[in-house]
Design goal:
Radius of gyration: 21 Å
Bound molecules: iron/sulfur cluster
CATH architecture of the largest domain: Alpha-Beta Horseshoe
CATH superfamily of the largest domain: tm_1862 like domain
Distance between the termini: 38 Å
Shape: globular
Strand order of the largest sheet: 4-7-8-9-10-11
CATH class of the largest domain: Alpha Beta
Number of strands: 11
CATH topology of the largest domain: pyruvate-formate lyase- activating enzyme
Structural class: alpha/beta
Largest sheet: 6 strands, parallel
Helix content: 25-40%
Length: 359
């Protein structure tokens, strides 16, 4: 808006504000937007969050599912990419955690609003029957935080006999309290991805992750013991990180039973505590401040004690774990005789080998 690229910004949960804006309601009375008037930016009061009734009323049959399929690369198991019909689904909005780098709170606050399990499963069933979807990603911030809700979704999928595989994200805290992995597995849950971020407790504390690193191994083993793949989100280039910290991360990760790991670089988005810290301490790399083209989490944007070359090498070392004998043995044990998973795994290995050789 400062650069005159957009006329209006919808702040937070967008459905109500966007609808009013597009219906021609006077901008001064549309809550939850910012706009320019006489060269000044005006920010209207925020909108109330949508309720469960409001969320259930959204017509999911109007969403263009086909657009999601291109996001389905890099999943090393469960359904081969060549046979995948993929869709995103969101059952709840918001996260109870308060990680310093995460923009979730700036959009939803920290209150979680849920769709009813019936409505969520109605959408899954619609995806399967009308769009032939066979793999879904629950984009909820922390899918395992409400065990009763998860249980109802799993039970309803099983009761209706819906054949789908899906994966979810969860915080370590929620995953360690969750107790019904078997029901999730039976309903089609193929992967649970946890926000590990780093193995260094001091950095975890600074990030506000609010979990102890020793919680990870038991919960990882528990997930895998039910035949569910473990995914990990791993971030690098914290301002205080050293090369020794990266090595500590590597040896910790090497001993976790993960099927998939997503290494990325920490990226400060406006509205987060990390962004404020980076601004105050002047931690941006040259030309990275508010440069949206590099704010992808795949490019280093902060100054640290670690050189870019060392950082890229550390990331490649993590990715090379996919080629280790240990990883292969683990994946073969987990996949067993499931033909789809075997094919998916082979496709993924080909993809990784090709891309590592290219670099
Ligand atoms: S647990 Fe995930 S979604 Fe929740 S605040 Fe932390 S990073 Fe954000």
């Amino acid at each position: 808006m400062l650069e005159d690229i957009v006329d209006y910004v919808v702040l937070g949960e967008g459905e109500r504000a966007l609808f009013e804006l597009m219906s021609g309601v006077d901008t001064a009375s549309v809550n939850g937007i910012a706009y320019k008037k006489n060269g000044k930016i005006i920010t209207n009061p925020p909108n109330n969050r949508l309720s469960t009734v409001d969320l259930d009323a959204i017509d999911f049959t109007k969403i263009h599912y086909k657009n999601y399929e291109r996001f389905a690369m890099h999943i090393p198991h469960s359904i081969p990419y060549s046979e995948m019909h993929f869709a995103n689904i969101v059952g709840s909005r918001g996260c109870w955690n308060d990680c310093s780098f995460c923009p979730s709170k700036t959009i939803w606050g920290r209150r979680i609003t849920y769709r009813t399990p019936k409505n969520v499963v109605d959408e899954l069933e619609f995806l399967v029957t009308k769009h032939n979807v066979n793999y879904a990603f629950f984009a909820d911030d922390d899918f395992l935080v409400n065990g009763a809700w998860d249980q109802s979704i799993a039970t309803e999928i099983i009761r209706r006999g819906i054949h789908i595989r899906y994966y979810v994200m969860a915080s370590v805290r929620s995953a360690s309290r969750f107790s019904n992995y078997e029901a999730l597995k039976t309903s089609g849950c193929a992967e649970i991805t946890l926000g590990l971020e780093t193995a260094n407790q001091t950095i975890l504390n600074n990030l506000g992750k609010n979990y102890e690193i020793q919680m990870i191994t038991p919960v990882a083993n528990e997930i895998v013991s039910h035949g569910i793949h473990l995914g990990l989100y791993y971030m690098m280039r914290y301002p205080e990180q050293t090369i020794e910290d990266l090595e500590e991360d590597y040896y910790f990760i090497e001993n976790l039973p993960f099927s998939r790991i997503r290494p990325s670089f920490i990226t400060p988005y406006p509205g987060t505590r990390l962004y404020q810290e980076v601004e105050q301490k002047g931690l941006w790399l040259d030309d990275c401040r508010n440069n949206w083209q590099v704010m992808t989490c795949d490019r280093p944007v902060l100054k640290t004690h670690v050189s870019i070359d060392d950082l890229l090498e550390a990331r490649e070392k993590i990715i090379r774990l996919y080629l280790s004998e240990n990883y292969h043995t683990r994946m073969c044990n987990l996949i067993g005789n499931d033909a789809l998973s075997q094919k998916a795994f082979l496709e993924f290995q080909t993809y990784i080998r090709k891309n590592l050789t290219k670099n």
